[in-house]
Amino acid sequence: MRFKHPWLALAVAACCAAGAGTLTARWLARSVPLPSPPEQLGLSIEPQGLDFGEVWATSHFEWNLPVRNDSGSEASVQSLLGDCSCVTAGSFPVRIGAGESKTIKLYLDLTKRCMGRGADPFAAVPHPIKLSASVIIQNTHRQFNWALDGRVKPVVLPSAREIDFGRLWNAPSLERSVPLHLAPGIEVRAAKLVGEGYGLVPEIRRGDKTSELVVRLPSLGPPSRYKCEVQIIPVTRTGEPIDLPPIPVNWEVLHEVQPDTTTVDFGVLTVGAVSEKTLTLSSLNGKPFRVTRCQIDAPGGAVAAPEPATSLPVLVSRRIDRTGDQTGEVHIEGVTDTGASFTIKCRTHYFGVNPASP
Question: Is the pTM of the predicted complex or chain greater than 0.70?
């Protein structure tokens, strides 16, 4: 195409070039991803500043939270809140210059969640706390979240979590003591029984630097298993009481006549077989007794000689009538030389199998 005027040709060429450049730019914008904006920095706390370790349970625990401003501008911390009422913080606002660090003091009440719920209620328990800070950076409100963690142990740690007097017979007054480890500022002035105590007497003995729980069993009751609980009552310096889980106390009073085993085990036998085992009854005080009745709660029987003696064998027979693990009881009744009656129960056990096929 020819143009009558050369300047007109130049104008058309320029327009074409501009259009091509615009189309090329749009195509590049669609096909080439734009670089992501730089990460917006703010406030940070080193990991060691978010772990207060293992501490005693106290209502006035102080923790310094080291907060660093990683942004390029001054930051103003308006508030710092926790996810529970156990957290309060110092005065606000707290201004932190760019690249600087400041400490925010936290006041924690660690008595609200210091009791374990597992096998050991006196074990140290995790105490996680979620923190949320409201901050102004360059006239923009921002929120920062952190997780504060640690472990809290009760203000009193007994050296034993349970007191067991064991199996007793004709025993004099007995006593067990449990040393107590106390948090600073804590005293233990008393201990009490929880529920029925069966004559048990708890007390606290305090030395210059030590305290211990002492439990006395002045006398034995009738033959039986006994269980009760003792609760320690610690107080702060101001006399404020603190709740603690109770400590179980167990003992068993034996009858003067005792078997040589608590389980008559017939072993592994085929169904249809009959097995016999012997258990022996003995007098703990060496005085004669006699058996008046024997009974087994399954196919079989139990027999003892009727004559008085200080030791008597009881023949227990059992017919194997089922496969697998099978348990039962044998009941033995008798009287001592003083005419006192007694009952003894022993467990029976066998594992039955089917006879081999021909």
Answer: no
